[in-house]
Amino acid sequence: MYLKHLHLKNFRNHLDLSLDFHPKVNLITGDNGIGKTNILEAIHFLSTGKSFRTSCLDELICHGSSFFYIEAQFVKESIEQTIKIGYEKKKKHIEYNSSKLNSFSNLLGILPSVIFAPKDISLVMGVPSERRRFLNIYLSQTDPLYVHYLQRYSKCLEQRNFLLKSKKPLDLTEMRCFEHELSMASTYLIKKRVEGIEKLSQKLKQHIKNLTDNHELFDMKYHSSFAPDVFEDPKLLAQEYEKIRHKEKVLGSTLIGPHREDFGIYLEKQSVKSFCSEGQKRSFLTALKLAEWRLVASDLLVSPLLCVDDLGVHLDEKRHTLLEQKLTKLGQVFITSPKKTFSLEGDPQLKVFQLRSELQIV
Fold first, then answer.
1. Which CATH number fits domain 1-112+306-362: 3.40.50.300, 3.50.50.60, 3.30.565.10, 1.10.10.10?
2. CA separation (Å) from 80 to 23, 43, 108?
């Protein structure tokens, strides 16, 4: 699978930009602020219906415009396909091979991708919601049922919280109905998250060996609100919601469930956040993203697009070179860098796009 052509109109700072990509490595260079990352953001949006930089779609519209438009032609299973996305005044238009899609979530799995960006340090240093977001996107691209249960959970959670915040006495019949739905969805979500973290942890250990000299023993563990024997049984989960219901009524919010859970990252059983150097954290993130790419490729039987934003900031010189060598073996890759330096320079597998006031293709 590879992205053949991308057209952006009024997307971020790109008023009208068309790019024809190489099936292997595409290096996008230029000064800071010229719009390199915006191209990766558009590619990631095609994959997930989300930006990896903002939750507000209006921020994606070029200043002074009222809409943005993205169009992509890509080849998957030897068939050329098209995705078109338009957004204007809260209205969206999504088209996949001339068929209209109702939701951005319907894009998941069509053109899968993995993004590796400097802000990924938040997976180590940031709040639990950052790690849940990473896990949700990874699992959603490979499992349509995960998307279904995640949406179902979110809707029921909103309705249950509304009842908890109401000044009226709890309607137990209605509350039990929502808790039943939450329990069914939670069982699936937590099970898949636990499995996903275990698979990622195993894969990243393999990649760490290729990036570090001392084979650092990184590990990840999912931390659930419930014991394993509880989250595997919807009936037991419903009982947990019932136990805490009156406390939640006082606070006006649901205190347990997948929306409050997290996963821990460890090196030699010590928290990476507190005990690791910056170099170790960057090595972990690199291995994690390579592991994510491998697992998505294995689950979908296609090579997802790999987007690496600002290649030079991720690793020291030695590990940077090792990463470059691995990138050439990972299907189609999109790299941004302020400098036109890459180990493949001059190789026919590489196409260089130099962004200035006008695009130059080297």
1. 3.40.50.300
2. 13, 17, 18
CB–CB of 112/300 below 8 Å?
Answer: yes
**Full pLDDT tens readout for the chain, 362 residues:** 999 999 999 999 999 999 999 999 999 999 888 999 999 999 999 999 999 999 999 999 999 999 999 999 999 999 999 999 999 988 999 999 999 999 999 999 999 999 999 999 999 999 999 999 999 999 999 999 999 999 999 999 999 999 999 999 889 999 999 999 999 999 999 999 999 999 999 999 888 887 776 667 899 999 999 999 999 999 999 999 999 999 999 999 999 999 999 999 999 889 999 888 888 898 899 999 999 999 999 999 999 999 999 987 766 777 777 777 778 888 999 999 887 666 666 678 889 999 987 666 65
Question: Domain map of the chain by residue range?
Answer: 1-112+306-362
Both tokens of residue 3? 């992205």
The CA-atom distances, in angstroms, between 94 and each of 105, 156, 310 are 11, 26, 29
* b/e sequence 64-73, b meaning 16+ C-beta within 10 Å: eeebbbbbbb
pTM as predicted: 0.93
